């Protein structure tokens, strides 16, 4: 049974090409994926991300619980509304999911986890929460719309109730606040995203989502499909769960070392395994690749190095760069002489640092 | 969805073939196929002078989403390729039945053309695919 977001009929009316996206019937594009990619880099586009799972955590020991559950440290969250990106690991240090956690009160945090991992995440979180007396409440009553691009914030702010505009204008990066949208609709506005552009991810009650979407269209925000979202996040150097990491991969091997907080005395799930792997030497590493020749790097292609084979994780044509880029996992310590097997032909590729694109422009050396 | 030109014949895998006045067979992919693939970003053309077999891969088109083999509807020798696609692969998205042609074959066995679907049969095929 395919699931549908509350905006499903709206997408179809807009002429979207719908595809199965991890069990959800979602728009891949509304015409041209490349044009939708460019509109986000240059102006403002929006994505229906209502398939993502919102989970509220309540209880006196919620912060303690999250210090145990997450590999990044919620102690970094000191101001109400601040958000943090983190991995949730198993005891072996493998990634169960990546998520964003919002600090909303002394006894109230909110998680946004992936759609494809919803069932196992809820089971894992629920199981771990018991010992802390934390109540785990899924919020299927929310739809979520990501509005992204250099003009995204201005277009959203223009739709807010006057009393909220100045406050949301000042909202810092990776922070969230409540505000009133058109017709008094309560919104949860976070200055986060998955495109490498500025913008907001906005939770709106399902029954008000279609009206809000249409107001955004009228304000000049272009509907964009999840196809463009994928090329945008890849250019921005952001991992995709299931493709770039999963339970068989540690954050060290997925370019996510920056999200691991080995702060003194914090006993989070997977910490022992991570420390042991680091001490023994991490066997694989994630790198960025650029193909200067014609062709497209794709998930699953074999990567040849002087230390053995690796593979392409996320790979795609990058519309901002007009060539293909990819993440690959290869044996640690390999030299920069790397080739990719594309349909039996060994193509030379360049190893680069990612992100590939930042603030609408190619990064240096890409 | 644009009209399917009546003079075309099709493979089930969505390639079209048009017999030209000089007897050569021009080949491309259908408008339906380009829509399914999405924005095309790269086309790997066959070599002029190479031989192709009916139903075998002769070219590759890559969209943002996926790479697809393009099968030749007829056997024979490649006599021309659409070099314009090297710089403008999106021509296939814009004009699949016209400027977006991919290669031209000098057919060695014209009887192979009789095995192909006519425009009506192809229209029916994609109609059923959509449901």
From TrEMBL, chain A:
Residue ranges of domain GCVT N-terminal in the record: 9-263
Gene3D superfamilies: Aminomethyltransferase beta-barrel domains (2.40.30.110), Aminomethyltransferase fragment (4.10.1250.10), Probable tRNA modification gtpase trme, domain 1 (3.30.1360.120)
Record-annotated Aminomethyltransferase C-terminal domain positions: 284-357
EC class of the enzyme, as a word: transferase
Keyword list, A-Z: Aminotransferase, Transferase
EC number from the UniProt entry: 2.1.2.10
Gene Ontology terms, MF aspect: aminomethyltransferase activity
A Pfam family annotated for this UniProt entry: GCV_T
The organism's place on the tree of life at top rank: Bacteria
Catalytic activity line of the entry: N(6)-[(R)-S(8)-aminomethyldihydrolipoyl]-L-lysyl-[protein] + (6S)-5,6,7,8-tetrahydrofolate = N(6)-[(R)-dihydrolipoyl]-L-lysyl-[protein] + (6R)-5,10-methylene-5,6,7,8-tetrahydrofolate + NH4(+)
Family according to the record: Belongs to the GcvT family.
HAMAP family: GcvT
Entry function: The glycine cleavage system catalyzes the degradation of glycine.
UniProt-listed PANTHER family: AMINOMETHYLTRANSFERASE, AMINOMETHYLTRANSFERASE, MITOCHONDRIAL
Quaternary assembly: The glycine cleavage system is composed of four proteins: P, T, L and H.
Descriptive protein name: Aminomethyltransferase
Native source species: Dyella lipolytica
Gene: gcvT
TrEMBL record, chain B:
Pfam families: GCV_H
Keywords, in A-Z order: Lipoyl
Annotated InterPro entries: 2-oxoA_DH_lipoyl-BS (IPR003016), Biotin_lipoyl (IPR000089), GCV_H (IPR002930), GCV_H/Fam206 (IPR033753), GCV_H_sub (IPR017453), Single_hybrid_motif (IPR011053)
Details of cofactor binding: Binds 1 lipoyl cofactor covalently.
Source species, domain of life: Bacteria
Coiled-coil segments: none
Residues that bear N6-lipoyllysine: 65
Cofactor section: (R)-lipoate
Domain Lipoyl-binding span(s) in chain numbering: 24-106
Function, in words: The glycine cleavage system catalyzes the degradation of glycine. The H protein shuttles the methylamine group of glycine from the P protein to the T protein.
Annotated PANTHER family: GLYCINE CLEAVAGE SYSTEM H PROTEIN (PTHR11715), GLYCINE CLEAVAGE SYSTEM H PROTEIN-RELATED (PTHR11715:SF3)
Family: Belongs to the GcvH family.
Oligomer status and interactors: The glycine cleavage system is composed of four proteins: P, T, L and H.
HAMAP family: GcvH
Name of the protein in question: Glycine cleavage system H protein
């Amino acid at each position: 049974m395919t699931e549908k977001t509350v905006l499903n009929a709206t997408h179809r009316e807009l002429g979207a090409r719908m595809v199965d996206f991890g069990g959800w019937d979602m728009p891949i594009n509304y015409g041209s994926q490349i044009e939708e990619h460019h509109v986000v880099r240059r102006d403002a586009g929006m994505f229906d991300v209502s398939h993502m799972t919102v989970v509220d955590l309540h209880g006196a020991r919620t912060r303690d619980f999250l210090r145990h559950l997450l590999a990044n440290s919620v102690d970094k969250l000191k101001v109400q509304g601040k958000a943090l990106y983190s991995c949730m690991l198993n005891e072996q240090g493998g990634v169960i999911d990546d998520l964003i956690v919002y600090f909303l009160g002394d006894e109230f945090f909110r998680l946004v986890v992936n759609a494809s991992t919803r069932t196992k995440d809820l089971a894992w979180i629920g199981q771990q929460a018991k010992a802390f007396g934390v109540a785990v409440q899924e919020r299927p009553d929310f739809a979520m719309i990501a509005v992204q691009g250099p003009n995204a914030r201005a277009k959203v702010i223009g739709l807010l109730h006057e009393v909220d505009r100045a406050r949301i204008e000042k909202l810092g990066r990776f922070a969230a606040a409540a505000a009133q949208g058109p017709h008094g609709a309560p919104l949860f506005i976070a200055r986060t995203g998955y495109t490498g552009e500025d913008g907001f991810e906005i939770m709106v009650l399902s029954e008000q989502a279609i009206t809000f979407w249409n107001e955004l269209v009228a304000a000049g925000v272009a509907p964009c499909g999840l196809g463009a979202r994928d090329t945008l996040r890849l250019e921005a150097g952001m991992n995709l769960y299931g493709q770039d990491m999963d339970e068989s991969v540690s954050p060290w091997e997925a370019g996510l070392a920056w999200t691991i907080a080995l702060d003194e005395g914090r006993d989070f799930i997977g910490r022992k395994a991570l420390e042991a792997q680091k001490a023994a030497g991490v066997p694989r590493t994630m790198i960025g690749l650029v193909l200067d020749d014609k062709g497209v790097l794709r998930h699953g292609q074999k990567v040849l190095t002087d230390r053995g084979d690796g593979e392409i994780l996320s790979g795609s044509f990058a519309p901002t760069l007009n060539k293909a880029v990819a993440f690959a996992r290869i044996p640690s310590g390999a030299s920069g002489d790397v080739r990719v097997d594309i349909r039996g032909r060994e193509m030379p590729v360049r190893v680069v640092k990612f992100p590939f694109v930042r603030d609408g422009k190619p990064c240096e050396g890409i | 969805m644009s009209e399917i030109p009546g003079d075309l014949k099709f493979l089930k895998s969505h390639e079209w073939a048009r017999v030209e006045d000089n007897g050569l067979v021009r080949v491309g992919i259908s408008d339906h196929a380009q829509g399914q693939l999405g924005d095309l970003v790269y086309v790997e053309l066959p070599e002029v002078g190479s031989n192709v077999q009916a139903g075998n891969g002769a070219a590759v088109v890559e969209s943002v989403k996926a790479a697809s083999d393009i099968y030749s509807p007829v056997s024979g020798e490649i006599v021309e390729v659409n070099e314009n696609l090297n710089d403008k692969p999106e021509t296939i998205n814009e004009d699949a039945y016209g400027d977006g042609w991919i290669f031209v074959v000098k057919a060695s066995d014209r009887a192979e053309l009789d095995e192909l679907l006519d425009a009506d049969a192809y229209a029916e095929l994609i109609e059923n695919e959509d449901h």
